[in-house]
Amino acid sequence: MAASLPSPASPPFSLATRNERVGELSSQHFDVLVIGGGITGTGVARDAAMRGLKVALLEAGDLATGTSSASSKLVHGGLRYLEQGNVRLVLESVSERARLMTLAPHLVRPMPFFFPVYRKKPRPLWMVGLGLWIYETLAMFRVPARHRTLRGAAARREFPGLTDDGLDGGVVFWDCATDDARLVLETAISAHEAGAWVLPRMRVEGFLTERGQVTGAHAKDALTGVSHSVSARVVVNATGPWTDRTLGLKRQRARLLRPTKGTHIVLRRDRLPLDATVMLRTDDGFIFAIPTEESVFVGTSDTDYSGDYDRVRATGDEVTSFLEHLNRAFPQADLGPDDVIGSWAGLRPLLTGGDDDTRELPRDHEVVLDDDGLVSVAGGKLTTYRLMAEEVVDRISERLASDGMHIGRSPTGAVRLPGGVGVERRRGELSSMGVQGRALDETIASEFGRDVADHLRRTYGGRWPGIIDRARADERLGLRIDPELPYLWAEVDHAVENELACTIVDVMRRRTQLILRSRDMGANCVADVGARMAQLLGWS
Ligand code: FAD
Asked: Does the pLDDT value for residue 294 go beyond 80?
């Protein structure tokens, strides 16, 4: 059983704390300065802080503002990597998947996947079954359930909307879905509680150097326009797709990465009623149709990208292409552009590889230590972030050891994320621990609705009473933000006061998924969310 570290009382994870700390930055000396507040940077900050190092993390925008809120939101082994023969990556990924299911059972939840086979393509049914057997063996069978092979009629019965023209059958297997932005947030909160200074809206604009060694960075506060110098023994570049650009700040011409663009679209689930993620074969790979509570996320594309890294958007051609694939697979659904209620796109920080085909580029990661001492961590996946972070801090510890500073081994594999404490998964369902906890679940469901109770448990895990207390204390905060979705007004207050949300988009896109999941991208509630935040943050 994973333990939780006793956290010394830490100040609220709020804008006020952030502002106070930014004001003191220049007078501090850190052991580790992390640049980038995606999953990689927050993972490194958490690991380093838990090993007792004094850590600062600077992020140009909001936490998870980059790729880490634009993924397919899967914590998975990656069947495709098995097909590519990358057994090491699959092994790492399935081990980390099992670990994250324990460390964050509320955020990493098992989900069935269906891999259909048409006319022996992409492989005969028996071969897909064999692949799944290897996949589960690598995971040492730590999966919620073993795979099942469905032949012709059985597959048609379980997936009635799927075209049966040439359908041989398929395989049902298990992987996990997550909320990527909240996985980053909880990792950041955990780092904060371990003592790290997590400071969003601080863009690094240059490096401090002394006798040829990187000794810190200059960063500009996006909220005040004021620049600050931050000094540290070790600086880590964890800027994902921006890694090469960050290296460019010290005039280093680097090409560690070849970022590729991936797009997703969002449909209402009543227009595509799926109970499992369905993998659809395309000419150059697969797209996933991933059901969530009331929506279906569909993606992803994988193409080279040379545009503005800060403005990665879905294009009309990509949306049309997704709809064509879906209509071929689910002809009765007859989906059109009006069925698309949202979209997102991001850049994969992929390592450069020899292959022209972007889908064949390696998904591994690399830790690079420059002669001037800067550590860069490039590539990787959401799924393997904890392991990557551990590797980075191990490399840092070698460096610190040469200065006579010795730190212990990483504890992160055995310490739950904050919301993971006090929740358990029983027969696939998530509930609070103990009889009392389970009784509370039932009370909340009858008071606010079953969907609200499920949403709060899946989003906040053991910390959900923080929302419920607010909702009970003020009737208005117990109301829904959007009548069709389970989000309560109490979550806006909680996001501002305990989750360092500073803008309306922080709340509506990354603390909640209102922009992705509401029928009108949140247009019906954006003004009211803004009004509430204005009250809380003292905006004019
Ligand atoms: P980012 O999340 O991009 O973080 C880098 C951060 O650095 C950004 O927030 C940026 O604002 C900040 N930054 C940049 N420059 C500066 C600066 N000068 N100063 C301060 N901050 C700066 N992985 C999975 O495991 N499962 C999946 O299902 C999955 N699906 C994916 C689907 C798509 C379409 C894509 C694109 C990726 C997917 N991945 C998936 C991969 C995964 O999302 C990424 O590997 C991971 O999110 C990268 O995280 P990161 O922290 O390295 O980068």
From this structure: yes
Alpha helices in 123-220 (DSSP H): 125-138, 152-158, 180-193
Mean pLDDT throughout 129-136? Answer: 92
Neighbouring C-beta atoms of residue 244, cutoff 10 Å = 21
Task: Name residue 375's beta-bridge partners.
Answer: 236, 369
- 159 pLDDT exceeds 60? yes
Q: Which residue's CA lies nearest to atom 35 of ligand 1?
A: 71
Q: In terms of pTM, does the model score above 0.90?
A: yes
Kindly tell me the burial class for residue 536, based on how many C-beta atoms sit within 10 Å of its own C-beta (0-12, 13-18, 19 or more): middle
- Name the token pair of 31: 């052991």
**Do residues 328 and 163 touch, judged by C-beta distance below 8 A?**
yes
Buried b (16+ CB within 10 A) or exposed e, 51-87: bebbbbbbbbbbbbbbbbbbbbbbbbbbbbbbeeebe
Q: For residue 123, is pLDDT > 70?
A: yes
How far apart CA 93 and CA 381 sit, in angstroms, is 9
Spatial distance between the Cα atoms of 103 and 509, rounded to a whole number of angstroms? 24
Q: Between 180-193 and 39-50, two packed helices, what is the crossing angle to 10 degrees?
A: 20
- Tokens for 233, please give them: 């023994």
176, 363, 381, 388, best to mutate for ligand 1 pocket (most atoms within 8 Å of CB): 381
State residue 92's pLDDT score.
92
For residue 274, the Cα-to-chain-centroid distance in whole angstroms is: 23
Q: Please count the CA atoms within 13 angstroms of the CA of 137 that sit on its side-chain side.
A: 8
Is-contact 190 132, C-beta < 8 A? no
Question: Mean pLDDT, to the nearest integer, of 444-454?
Answer: 92
How far apart, in Å, are the Cα atoms of 238 and each of 36, 241, 430? 5, 9, 33
Separation CA 477–CA 351 (nearest Å): 46
| Distance (Å) from CA 63 to ligand 1 centroid | 10
Q: What is the dihedral of CA 479, 485, 490, 492, to 10 degrees?
A: -130
Pocket test for ligand 1, best of 348, 368, 387 (most atoms within 8 A of CB): 348
Spell out which residues line ligand 1, taking CB within 6 angstroms. 35-41, 58-61, 65-68, 70-74, 76, 203-204, 238-242, 246, 262, 300, 346-349, 380-383
pLDDT in tens, 307-349: 999 899 999 999 999 999 999 999 999 999 999 999 999 999 8
pLDDT of residue 439: 74
- pLDDT for position 227: 97
Q: What is the mean pLDDT of residues 427-444?
A: 71
333 — alpha (psi -120 to 50), left (phi > 0) or beta? Answer: alpha
- pLDDT value for 362: 57
Q: Residue 334 burial (CB < 10 Å; 0-12/13-18/19+)?
A: exposed
Ligand 1 centroid distance, CA of 428 (Å):
29
pLDDT at 463 over 70: yes
